[in-house]
Amino acid sequence: MWREVSAESQARQRPGTERCERGAGDIVAPPGHWRLAWQAAGGSLPYSLLIDRRAFVAALILLLALLTASLAYLAMGSSPLPPQAVPAALVGRGDMMAVFLVQELRLPRLAAACLTGAAFGVAGCLMQTLARNRLATPGIIGIDNGATAFAVASVIGLGVSLAPPAMALAGATTAAALTFGLAAGGGVRGYRFIVAGIGVGAVFGAITQLLLAKVHIDTANAAYPWTVGSLNARPAGAVMLLAVGLSLGLGAALWLTRALSLMRFSDAVASGLGLRVARRRWQVLAVSVLLTGLAVAVAGPVGLIGLIGPEIARSLSSPRGVPVVASALAGALVMVLADLAGRILLSPIEIPVGIVTAVVGGPWLLWILLRPASRNLA
């Protein structure tokens, strides 16, 4: 990634490159990057870190947009609050009703929206990169429906709030295994994988509807949020488990960033560059299944977040890398805005977030199919 040049060549270096002394030579940061270097105590060589400028700026823009949307989320609702009252309510000051609305009602729901949106966004980015196809999201290839079917089965059969996360993970794993098994011979690339996932998702969707049709109406109502996607009154245990899983999954995704960049090439090229393709492929799949299962256990099958979030991140970020962090931020932003719209559009009637994302995601899916392929997945 870096090249060394002699002192005589310094005058010929392109404008905008950054240099750092390293012995007799200079290390030049590649165009479009910042290079941070530091010297460890007692070390003979400096440590360096490259930061993609465009990716950093994109992540910063998305973070600021998410913070703005979060402020609006806490202030708006059936009982609106002045924006300036939200910071005071967050620390327990000001009007007691404002404190109750922010801390007890809206803040936990905002946390669930950010966590689930980020998990769906990262999972979608990983699956799209793995399959080199913008349609290969957990929702479209059946992983969401598998997790939903198992979560609904746990609610109907057990009625325990801590059961859905474990069952959702089992369902996501089962759906992923079935999809890969049915696509055997075609790998994870190409439309055979997509068609197999659509078929698996349809089967699990039918199983979910059958389960709901065979139980008492009260039990079916308890399981209903897992069929359409909702953030209303989410179990605190499931949200906490998702927070832990997202921290681990995001860290693993960042660790796999180099492998993900190489996976955009053919398997022969990636193997020639030293990548253990099969091992990395299973690791990426495991992280996607973990994030999808935990997110579905909290919010239900809001799968189109995994399609919209990575596409926004990819359009803002540099084509040189895989926008894992930007996908997490974009997914969280879309989820927060969608849930906010569902809360206020027909207030006091609430529209589940899954329905809002479906209304927005349908045209977005058509737009993706009609526009040229993204250069990041080419």
Overview of the structural elements:
With 378 residues, the protein is mostly helical. The chain is built from 15 helices and 5 strands. The chain is 64% helix and 7% strand. The chain has helices at residues 53-75, 85-90, 96-131, 143-157, 163-182, 191-213, 217-223, 225-228, 236-255, 257-263, 267-272, 277-299, 305-316, 324-344, 353-370, and strands at 3-5, 19-22, 25-28, 33-39, 46-52. The protein folds into 2 domains: 3-50, no CATH class; 51-370, ABC transporter involved in vitamin B12 uptake, BtuC. Helix 3 (96-131) packs antiparallel against helix 12.
Any low-confidence stretches, pLDDT <50, length ≥5? 1-25
State the order of secondary-structure elements, H for helix, E for strand: EEEEEHHHHHHHHHHHHHHH
Counting structural domains, the number is 2
Q: What is the number of strand segments? A: 5
Instruction: Name the average pLDDT.
Output: 81
Question: Helical proportion?
Answer: 55-70%
State the fourth-level CATH superfamily of the largest domain.
ABC transporter involved in vitamin B12 uptake, BtuC
Question: Main β-sheet, in a few words?
Answer: 3 strands, antiparallel
> What is the CATH top level name of the largest domain?
Mainly Alpha
Proper CATH architecture of the largest domain: Orthogonal Bundle
Numbering strands along the chain, what is their spatial order in the largest sheet?
A: 1-3-2
- CA radius of gyration is 23 Å
Structural class: mainly alpha
First-to-last CA distance? 22 Å
CATH topology of the largest domain: ABC transporter involved in vitamin B12 uptake, BtuC
Strand proportion? 5-15%
The backbone outline, from C-alpha atoms, is globular
- Please count the helical segments: 15
